[in-house]
């Protein structure tokens, strides 16, 4: 018996295809394989039977040749989610410029190498790549958590912000949705209200540290919970660790978008989320873009990049090795991701 939980999450299309073909051969030889995946095409192409679950219950079991992806989507979420959108040419002003950034880890190993790109207002710039090619370090550099050894980060209206602290960048309107929401975006032992309000606490919006306006914090938290459809919150005093992955992500987005950011950095925002939660997250990213924000979407999920990005950069060995306008050829992107572009 082989149980696989999102086995292709950090693989290219070609690598994922080879893995699933190998698993298919094992099944043909007599193994029992349970494949848990959010990728509908994987289910349709590599399963003998598909069982759809929603809210912890089995909805239906179907044969792959009897359904299509929209049918599965309706079973999963109870409604149709738009899977394609019209990409447009972006002509807004340049909001974020990253120029020849280099960086090293604590052990001295280089992770970013002359990395450059720019993002305009009203644009989603997607960065595709296999995990471990410097994506996490790029996010840390953009948020002021890691000092680069070379290069600059320029922000419209602020100039060179390379040497500024993380709290200063947040004050400049830079928001971040990290890949590890529990490790970097939320303090699980603190309440939903504290996690949502922390930015306002730091800025003085809710009074001084000695005398916080808890009523205002609770009121704004409840408003955000309703606006961003954060489910599973019995009380704003509830520990955030009790939220599911999707609802924890919605709480992070509610906080990060509460100040109408000018730049949004989103790293694998749909990691571990179901179709409905992913659609909600994507909707908020598109809304931020439509309101004029420059969005940097870093993801190992090529489908997510192709769905959302207005332009695409491919990251390999710590640098941008290729850029594509959309609609883009996914196979060309895949080749660049593995160094064959």
SSE layout and pairings?
Layout: E1 2-5, H1 13-28, E2 33-36, H2 40-46, E3 50-54, E4 57-62, H3 69-77, E5 94-104, E6 110-120, E7 123-128, H4 135-142, E8 150-155, E9 159-160, H5 166-171, E10 174-177, H6 181-185, H7 192-203, H8 214-227, H9 245-257, E11 263-267, H10 275-290, E12 294-299, H11 302-308, E13 311-316, E14 319-325, H12 330-337
Parallel strand pairs: 1-2, 7-12, 7-13, 10-11, 11-12
Antiparallel strand pairs: 3-4, 5-6, 5-8, 8-9, 13-14
Task: Explain what the structure shows.
The chain has 341 residues and is α/β, with parallel strands linked by helices. Helix content is 35%, strand content 24%. It is built from 12 helices and 14 strands. The chain has helices at 13-28, 40-46, 69-77, 135-142, 166-171, 181-185, 192-203, 214-227, 245-257, 275-290, 302-308, 330-337, and strands at 2-5, 33-36, 50-54, 57-62, 94-104, 110-120, 123-128, 150-155, 159-160, 174-177, 263-267, 294-299, 311-316, 319-325. Strands 10-11-12-7-13-14 form a 6-stranded mixed sheet, sandwiched between helices. A hairpin with a 2-residue loop joins strand 3 (50-54) and strand 4. The longest helix is centred in the first third of the chain and has 16 residues, at 13-28. The chain is globular.
